[in-house]
Amino acid sequence: MQYESSSCRYYIHEHSVTVVEGKDSIKHINRIITSNIAEIKDLENCKSLICDANGKITDALDISSISGQLLILGVKENAEKTRELIVSGTHWNEDVKIMNGDGALKIISIFAKNQEKLSKALGIEISTMRNDFWIIENESYILKAQLKNDFQVNILIQADLIDSFIKTVEGNGAELCGEDNWNIHRVENGILSNEEYNRGFLPGELGLDEIVDLKKGCYPGQEIHARLESRGKLSKKIMRFRTDSKLDVGTYISNTGRKVRVTSSLGNQGFAVISVKENNELKLNDELLILTEEL
After folding, report:
1. Residues ≥6 apart with Cβ < 8 Å to 32
2. Which of 55, 243, 259, 270 is disulfide-compatible with 221, CB 3.0–4.6 A?
């Protein structure tokens, strides 16, 4: 099950949007997240996590510095809890202002298996774009995504400009992507979603160690992460899988007697969090599960 390889698709996301400004805003946010944004540059985009005291993920963030403000995009379902954490962590003598931007800005992903089709849809050349810095184009911000298989850019745009933007990209050959096709695309390219982030996993169990900086100082969950790194004792990992028939999302017991949590399942492929002791082939309820790649 795949989307048409010759097509260029776009998908409109639902994210939480928080804007933080003030001279102490970077220092404040840096105390809460797992990555280090102390030296973030204008138009730079950094990925990060928020974790609880047990080191488990409570939100996944994209943090960008734009015109002296921090723009924080998170999982929509976690918006209220994350914003409360950001507000409650502010010190009385800090210059930090926190604003709710939900609904004002939108993220649109445009993707294709052919880079030329993507450039045509956008009307700009994407091959020379960087993966970690936004560029400004016609009242929108554009960021190239680094994927395993396909080509993708993310567009940050004001909500009231979406209709005009969509008219332009559709005129250049892009087609609206439904939820199922987006999920197929993200599974094929190793893109995690709230289906993974909201299940109480540790960063390392989802292959997200690279956005955890243990040297920057304390943040919620830092002690747990440091202990796990020093002992090398992660017991689970996330893998892409394929099967001969559709497998429902849920928790299973494999033929080896170990727990398997299927977090995303589209057609005959998806993501599953398994024990690090498992082999590359498992049986779940007599269904053969072939583990193809660690994320």
Report:
1. 50, 85, 86, 89, 219, 220
2. 55
Q: Which of 54, 97, 56, 98 is nearest to 79 (CA)?
A: 98
**Could you tell me the pTM of the whole model?**
0.94
Closest listed residue to residue 222, CA positions, set 230, 214, 234, 231: 214
Amino acid letter, residue 137:
E
Q: Is 151 helix (H, G, I), strand (E, B) or coil?
A: strand
Tens of pLDDT along 226-280? 999 888 778 899 999 999 888 899 999 999 999 999 999 988 899 999 999 988 8
Report the alpha-carbon distance of residue 235 to residue 9 in Å, rounded. 38
SS (H, E, C) 183-218: HHHHHHCCCCCHHHHCCCCCHHHHCCHHHCCCCCCC
Tokens of 158: 């004001």
Superfamily of domain 7-233: Probable tRNA modification gtpase trme; domain 1 (3.30.1360.120)
Instruction: Provide the token pair at 130.
Output: 């960087």
Q: What is the pLDDT of residues 164-207, one digit of tens each?
A: 999 999 999 999 999 999 999 999 999 999 999 999 999 999 99
Structure tokens at 48: 């990060």
User: What does the alpha-carbon distance between residue 40 and residue 78 come to, in Å, rounded to a whole number?
Assistant: 24
